[in-house]
Amino acid sequence: TIPRGFRPYAITSMDQAKGNVNPLSRSHSVLQKGRQLYDVYCIVCHGKYGEGDGLVAAKPGWPRPLFPRPPSLQSDKINEFKDGQLFHVMSMGQNLMPSYAETLNAEAHW
């Protein structure tokens, strides 16, 4: 069976994801909701400003890091990602980052 409201995600690569267009308008309310979601789901690894220095990331001087430090979301590489690529990473996961496909609905990924 298929859950009600389920939308299959058929994109399998970052190159394909480039063409996936964000359906949400860039408005204050959308950005505010994005900030709220970031503060719940992302900040623990990526940190307040996206530098990869969240609470569970490796910190200088700790005897044993909990997890390797994730890449900075402020890097040139990530800043060049298209919205569709960011959606893809949140949907499919990447490296140690898990998929949020079952945790958040598709609108929240944008």
Question: How is this structure best described in words?
Answer:
The protein is an all-alpha fold. The chain has 5 helices and no strands. The longest helix is centred in the middle third of the chain and has 19 residues, at 28-46. The protein is globular. It starts with 13 loop residues before the first helix and ends with a helix. The mean pLDDT is 88.
Number of strands: 0
Helix/sheet category = mainly alpha
Distance between the termini: 27 Å
Low-confidence stretches: none
Largest sheet: none
Overall 3D shape: globular
Radius of gyration from CA coordinates: 15 Å
Mean residue pLDDT: 88
N-to-C series of helices and strands? HHHHH
Strand content: under 5%
What attributes characterize this protein structure?
about 110 residues; mainly alpha; 5 helices
Please provide a brief summary of the model:
This protein is mainly alpha-helical. It is built from 5 helices and no strands.
List the helices and strands and how they pair.
Layout lengths: L13 H4 L10 H19 L29 H4 L3 H10 L13 H4 L1
